[in-house]
Amino acid sequence: MSRWLIATMTSVLFIALVIAVTGFEALLADVEVISQPDATPYLGPAMVLGGAVVVFLATGVGAREGNPGVTGLVAAATAYLVMLGVGAVGYSLIRGELTELLVFPAGYALGPFVVGSVVVALLCVVGGIAMARHQARVGRPPRSTPTTPGDDGARR
Questions:
Q1: Whole-number mean pLDDT of the chain?
Q2: Would you say 90 and 105 are in contact if contact means Cβ atoms under 8 Å apart?
Q3: Residue 50 belongs to what H/E stretch?
């Protein structure tokens, strides 16, 4: 399988798991994903899509070389910053106030939505890279053994 196909599947898995995790967080802890009443219903999904782009790129690039754990940690940190950045820019555009660029990330930096998404991103990237490396290892043709002249390899 292509590493970019694996990266696409990993990104879709990331989105599905974030939806599941935030659903359970909302159900069990009675918290809302985005607590501001004037935020549009598209702010949370935009933040998740930003994280999915990070997961896609980290899995696609990390599948070739490097340590999967380190790549996963870098992807998790980047997804954290991207999700907070997208949320801050989106909410400041909604409110029309520049101060929300600092206030929004401060309110959600340790919130269950962002932290849960970052943990899911870490697990998805490490798993996607491990799967891509396993596919590359298994997909190689076996080492050829020297044959004698006239041997066409057919069993009789």
A1: 89
A2: no
A3: helix 43-62
Q: Is the distance from CB of 117 to CB of 48 less than 8 angstroms? A: yes
Euclidean distance between CA atoms 123 and 73, whole angstroms: 9
Which of 105, 110, 101, 90 lies closest to 43 in space, CA to CA? 90
Q: CA-CA distance, 52 to 56, in Å (whole number)? A: 6
Positive or negative torsion for Cα 118, 122, 128, 132 = positive
Looking at residue 53, its pLDDT comes to 97
CA 147 to CA 46: how far, in whole Å? 59
For the chain, give the percent of residues with pLDDT over 70.
89
Give the pTM. Answer: 0.84
Q: For residue 57, give Cα distances in angstroms to 61, 111, 123, 126, 143.
A: 6, 25, 15, 13, 32
Which pair of tokens denotes residue 98? Answer: 């520049």
pLDDT band with cut points at 50, 70 and 90 for residue 12: very high
Residue with tokens 């994280």: 51
Q: Name the H helices within 109-155.
A: 112-138
- The owner of tokens 């809302």 is 32
CA distance 7 to 37: 35
